[in-house]
Amino acid sequence: MPDLAAPGAVFVPEPIVTSASYRVSCLPPSHHLAPQFTLWVSERAGRYAVTNLWSCCLSVDGRWDHEPRPADRPDGWDVRHRFDLPNALRLAKQAARTLTFQGRSVAQVLADAVGGPGRG
Question: What's CA 98's distance to the chain center, in Å?
């Protein structure tokens, strides 16, 4: 480790830690299917995106769209897929209740956890 008190040493401040995303799911983080049933609300250039495990973004009309690279986005893409934080969290909470994975809804997965496979 360099001697920070040495002449000519550059002062490096303490790192700044910020929270830039929120986890939204109807399943607890410890559930084995939690990743597939989790949405993320993440800051992107001052607005927020709602994304899933497969790098798709929720649009204002409730569709899931693959997120293209910024240079490849058509005009208006950000307007349809970026929100202020309160709306992003509201939309993520609504969408979390409707997620499916391998033909099973979040309600069915929760029912299985309560009563065993086959319920729901």
Answer: 15
